[in-house]
Amino acid sequence: MESNMGEEMNLMCNLSDYVEELGIKKGIEQGKEQLLTQQIMKKCAKGKSTAEIADDLEVDEATVRNIPEKNLVSNH
After folding, report:
1. How high is the pLDDT of residue 9?
2. Mind listing the pLDDT tens digit of every residue in the chain (76 residues)?
3. Which of 6, 13, 41, 42 is deepest in the core (most CB within 10 A)?
4. CATH number of the domain that 62 lies in?
5. What does the alpha-carbon distance between residue 70 and residue 75 come to, in Å, rounded to a whole number?
6. Nearby residues of 48 by Cβ (< 8 Å), 6 or more positions away
7. Number of structural domains, the chain?
8. Boundaries of domain holding 13
9. Which value, to the nearest 10 degrees, does the dihedral of the CA atoms of residues 50, 53, 59, 65 take?
10. 62, 39, 37: which is closest to 50 by C-alpha?
């Protein structure tokens, strides 16, 4: 019985660690997207073209086109 309880505790701890790791990864990804959005918006404000922004930030043009749209939608 004690062995079974120990296994369950170990499983719960492992699950907790996994959930924490997923949360950290999600936070990092959100931070990267926010930074990219800020960079794209600044470059758009300076009048740079989609191609120039994509080249500067080393992303594809579709990413550049989609970020400002998402940002404008989320602000309204």
Report:
1. 82
2. 567 778 888 888 888 899 999 999 999 999 999 999 999 999 999 999 999 999 999 999 999 998 866 665 554 3
3. 41
4. 1.10.10
5. 9
6. 56
7. 1
8. 2-75
9. -30
10. 62
